[in-house]
Specification:
Number of strands: 21
Strand content: 25-35%
Number of helices: 11
Largest sheet: 9 strands, mixed
Oligomer: single chain
Structural class: alpha+beta
Shape: elongated
Length: 423
């Protein structure tokens, strides 16, 4: 194990009592990190994850070569179910939406920490998921996001089991569905709303490579906007309203929308489709748009601007084509991730920072993002997302790269975070 650099003056925060999900639970104490590092079993567990990092990388590759396209995570979920059993977790099960869960009981059922990593990728069915390896460089779709998270998740569970570390609270490990794309956090929504409703006090997601702490949850709303009309021949029916033209007007207006620099607010038209032939007025034209902001009010304002742009485009197309025919438009909400945040001074954030300071001599940067932590944060449950270590590039591309240089540090970090937050 590498020498540990402890933060000077790291003070133990007096334990207080707070209400979480209707239960009385001791507030997280960031000062517990210092005492944990004096525990021989904790030190043994930290040494083991560094020593076993080659096996963690092998497992990361194995998981990655099992396809997990959106809404079809079942095969990879089954692999994680077996891995949870092998790592010594108890009560391993798959819930109704496809989340894989396994428990590591502590001395008490509460506080209950959930440590999660998402199963799904952004890549459609049929994408080759073969991973190539050259020294410490791995290439393949999803190798970092989020096969790294899955590999670290299992490695942490295994290290706890093998070392015999005992935590006051209990930990549930979750490999969840529905984080990417139109999955719309469906795994988290079922986990918190049904499977473990009222049982979760703290939440940590391991998502992707690198070292970071995400405590600002960027909210998003995603729409599929569809213009419909009677269609017709491009020559014989010229002058009839055209869904594709209305779509073009809408997208052009959306492109001119102004957004604030703070809070950070963005939009993107990501997909467009419709029509059957170059010489036919389409009966349908659609686009999908992603709206994001780190602040709920700004997101709502952006949403209203987009809706208005679509309505104005419809009226403009009717004025351009004044025949009796008319178009209709539908705006289907296909994704809704809440915007939320937790203070940088919150105990869970300070604990994660204290772990990084203790292990590596520096606090990791705080960041914003859209992750599984969005949902618990929207419920006022303390939650963060951390990186799994190593380095990564080209996320969400089939050329994605993961470099395993010192990747064990991410595994060590996740392990000590889990132990500390189960106190």
């Amino acid at each position: 194990m590498k020498p540990l650099s402890l933060r000077r003056g790291l003070a133990a925060v007096a334990s207080t009592v707070c209400f979480v999900m209707g239960q009385r639970v001791a507030a997280q104490d960031p000062g517990v990190v210092t005492s944990l590092l004096r525990d021989g079993r904790v030190q043994a567990a930290l040494s083991a994850v560094e020593r076993n990092e080659p096996s963690t990388i092998d497992e990361q590759v194995r998981f990655c070569e099992i396809p997990a396209p959106p809404f079809k995570e079942q095969a990879r979920a089954e692999a994680l179910r077996r891995a949870f059993h092998d790592a010594g977790l108890q009560n391993v099960r798959i819930d109704k939406v496809g989340n894989v869960l396994g428990d590591r009981p502590g001395l008490s059922p509460r506080p209950r920490l959930v440590v999660a990593a998402h199963l799904d990728t952004v890549f459609p069915e049929g994408t080759s998921v073969k991973v190539s390896r050259q020294d410490r460089t791995l290439r393949g779709p999803g190798i970092g996001d989020n096969c790294r998270g899955l590999g670290v998740l299992v490695a942490v569970a295994r290290a706890l089991h093998q070392s015999g570390v005992q935590t006051p609270g209990s930990i549930t490990f979750v490999a969840n569905v529905g984080e990417e794309g139109l999955g719309d956090l469906r795994g988290m929504k079922v986990l918190f709303g049904e499977t473990m409703k009222g049982q979760i006090d703290r939440f940590v997601s391991i998502d992707g490579p690198g070292h970071h702490v995400t405590q600002v949850a960027v909210g998003s709303r995603r729409y599929r906007v569809t213009f419909r009309g009677p269609g017709g021949h491009s020559f014989g029916s010229f002058g009839h309203p055209n869904p594709a033209h209305a779509l073009g007007r809408a997208v052009a207006a959306i492109a001119e929308m102004q957004v604030p620099a703070s809070p950070v607010t963005t939009f993107n038209v990501g997909r467009i489709g419709g029509g059957t032939s170059v010489n036919a007025i389409p009966t349908e034209a659609w686009f999908e748009i992603d709206l994001r902001s780190e602040q709920a009010g700004s997101l709502a304002s952006l949403d209203a601007k987009m809706q208005a742009a679509v309505d104005i485009a419809l009226r403009a197309e009717h004025r351009r084509a004044p025949t009796g025919a008319r178009l209709s438009v539908s705006k289907e909400l296909v994704g809704d991730r809440p915007a939320a945040s937790i203070s940088a001074s919150a105990p869970i954030v300070r604990t994660v920072q204290a772990v990084s300071q203790a292990l590596f001599g520096t606090a990791v940067p705080l960041s914003r993002g859209s992750t599984d932590a969005n949902f618990p944060l929207s419920l006022n449950i303390p939650a963060v997302t951390i990186g799994g270590g190593g380095e990564g590039t080209d996320a969400h591309a089939t050329s994605e790269v993961f470099v395993a240089t010192d990747s064990w540090k991410g595994t060590e970090n996740a392990l000590l975070v889990a132990i500390a937050l189960a106190h």
